[in-house]
Amino acid sequence: MDDSRYYKRTIVKDELASSHLGEIRTLRIYLPPGYNELLSYPVIYCQDGEQFFNFGRIATTLTRCILDEGLEPAIVVGVDVDVLTRTSEYAPEGERHDTYCRFFAEELLPYIEGKYPVRSDRTERILAGDSLGGTVSLHLALDYRSLFCRVISLSGAFFDLTRSRLEREDDLSWLEMYMLIGMDETDVTTERGTFDFVRENRETKAVLERKKAGLLYLEKPGKHIWGFWQGELDAALTYFLG
After folding, report:
1. Where does the record locate the signal sequence feature (predicted)?
2. What is the DSSP letter of 212?
């Protein structure tokens, strides 16, 4: 099978100087096949941008879904992260977490929306992340609900602090989540310790359902690795763009 046509898209590397973060952040921008500046597109904002593009192969997957399955064309914005500060930015207790969220909402969005024809309604913005990337994506939606209401979580690291944050909400019916967890993720070692991600996601699912969030929750055979998440990205994208 000739897959060459799946590579007929554009990926732009860009840099954004952030006054909040005090540094330059690398961005990867995917423009879909047939991209036209006169049109408008939904946008997917990915934490761990380099990993989503290199290990998740999101550009190839989305192009295939657009060309073969009629999925609505979308723009993808991958936000790179330094592994040395990733936990500090993505974990809700991290010292750079609030600053990172302000960068995302107050600097990244205006920059992208001023440069690319992305739609600005919150239902046309999707936040996506794996592990702690799923965590910060959910917290961004909770803290900036006028901007975000759709989240793709691939094995999200949802622990006590996140559930406490959810418990403070009276009604989450505005929130839509796609939650995937691998059934082999019962003993995952992270910077913050070893966790049973299956149990943590099930407990978080229960809170989300009680608060009336829109939720597609999936448990499938898989480990806490991109080899698992990559094969599930098409379904996640189709859930919101199909």
Report:
1. none
2. T
> How would DSSP label each residue in 97-145?
HHHHHHIIIIIIHHHHHHHS-B--SGGGEEEEEETHHHHHHHHHHHH-T
The two tokens of residue 132 are 């702690």
Of the candidates 195, 203, 129, 215, which has an alpha carbon nearest to the alpha carbon of residue 163? 203
Q: Report which of 30, 38, 113 is spatially closest to residue 74, judged by C-alpha positions.
A: 30
Say if residues 238 and 178 touch (Cβ distance below 8 Å).
no
Instruction: List all residues 6 or more positions away from 84 whose beta carbon is below 8 Å from its beta carbon.
Output: none
Q: Domains in the chain, start-ordered, CATH in brackets? A: 4-241 (3.40.50.1820)
Residue type, 115: K
**With left for phi above 0 and alpha for psi between -120 and 50, is residue 78 left, alpha or beta?**
beta
- Pairwise CA distance, residues 224 & 51, whole Å: 14
Whether 1 shows a pLDDT value over 60: the answer reads no
User: Is residue 149's pLDDT more than 60?
Assistant: yes
pTM over 0.85: yes
Query: How far is the C-alpha of 60 from the C-alpha of 13, rounded, in Å?
Result: 16
- Whether residue 130 contacts residue 48, with contact meaning beta carbons closer than 8 Å, is answered with yes
- How is 41-92 classified by DSSP, letter by letter? B-EEEESSHHHHHHTS-HHHHHHHHHHHH-PPP-EEEEE---TTTHHHHHST
pLDDT digits (tens, 9 = 90+) for 42-64: 999 999 999 999 999 999 999 99
For the stretch 189-200, pLDDT in tens is: 888 889 999 999
